[in-house]
Amino acid sequence: MLASTVQLTRAARDQGYAVPAVNVFDEVSMRAVVEAAQVAAAPLIVQVSVKTLRSLGTPLVGATFEAVTKDATVPIALHLDHCPDRAVISMVIAAGWSSVLFDASDRDMDDALRETTEVVSQAHAVGVDVESEIENILGVEDGVGSAEARHAYTVEELAKAAEATGADLLAPQLGTSHGAFKTPPKLLPGRVRDLAALVDRPIVLHGGTGLIAEDFQSFIQAGVSKINISTAVKHAYMQSAAQHLDTASRRDKWDPPSLFQDITVAIRVEITDLIEQFGAAGRAHTATR
């Protein structure tokens, strides 16, 4: 059974931790992150990018999620990550996923508010939660985003926008960027605190690559309760695969299931460590209260 993204993140906010929201790319990576959550007894949000969705198709992603999570004893939500495409948003809402991130950061304020309100109305009609991004978080992730700041607003403007649209979760610019940092970031946990004082909605941290445990804790203490993970999974996946294939080539032994196992272990180790850093380990039993 799909967990509610907003319910998981509200519980995390109230209890002082963050739910890991992990981008996956296939069955191997999906199983790995679910296994990590199971072992750590942590709530989890499985995320899929538009690029991955278009590659695999909505029916296959949904069927894979159902198969991978059918015996899970921890609450797990299924979420569409950064999506500016209304047609894709509608397709995922119709499929009944837990939530979608409607990325309107490439629109001006009036269009962003109008379209986000429309998406929220459409999603809420069938019980799907909506994460909103109207000011762009720097960096390009799976073909979505921009390396330049296009729209930035005050926390007061973001709070008014949230109230106007009815969005369930908010993804503000917090000084981070998608992908690896090219220069040291100027982190803005104080902006979380200011926004949290104005709105009763979970706040999401995007672009956590390169942050250390103390950085994550400063954001969580300020009010962040969903932290997105993507680049770390890609690195674990591809570096593990590269090492395995190098060894296979030297030994001239080619066994795909062994490759998948090495990738699984690498991702599981990475996600288990982040679950601990976010304070989510052992929280599964209280995550839906």
Automatic annotation (TrEMBL):
One Pfam assignment: F_bP_aldolase
Entry binding sites for Zn(2+) 1: H82, H178, H206
GO biological process, one term: carbohydrate metabolic process
UniProt: Zn(2+) 2 binding residues: D103, E133
Keyword tRNA-binding: no
InterPro entries, A to Z: Aldolase_TIM, Class_II_FBP_aldolase, FBA_II
GO terms assigned for molecular function: aldehyde-lyase activity; zinc ion binding
Cofactor note: Binds 2 Zn(2+) ions per subunit. One is catalytic and the other provides a structural contribution.
Amino-acid positions noted as binding dihydroxyacetone phosphate in the UniProt annotation, renumbered to this chain: G179, G207, G208, T209, N228, I229, S230, T231
Cofactor(s) required for function per UniProt: Zn(2+)
Keyword Ribonucleoprotein recorded: no
Active-site residues, record numbering mapped to chain: D81 (proton donor)
PANTHER family recorded: D-TAGATOSE-1,6-BISPHOSPHATE ALDOLASE, D-TAGATOSE-1,6-BISPHOSPHATE ALDOLASE SUBUNIT GATY-RELATED
Protein name: Class II fructose-bisphosphate aldolase
